[in-house]
Amino acid sequence: MEPLEERETQVAAWLKKIFGDHPIPQYEVNPRTTEILHHLSERNRVRDRDVYLVVEDLKQKASEYESEGATFSQRHGCFSVSSVPGSTIGETGKIKATDYTFEEKIGILFRLNAESISCSSEN
Question: pTM for this structure?
Fold first, then answer.
């Protein structure tokens, strides 16, 4: 078992991390409160690790789904975001019309419409 002083130091560091720039609320430093807070900090550390693993797993799955979607689109000719020039779609997912000439805008709209029709006719 860790010495009490070491646990107090760990608890103080954990509280600093949790509260960030905000002041840490005052608490009575004694063996019982130190033990309770140390236990909470350990559970928090384990939870953070678990959340990190879930996030990484979701990133991997998203990448796999994106790859499968691209493969499906190539095989079936359906619309894919990757088939539209990268600067066409903004962070909100909407078409950005300011970067293109009128002819380019018409071409993009025509291509989007044609791809959505080919997808809907296959269903």
Answer: 0.51
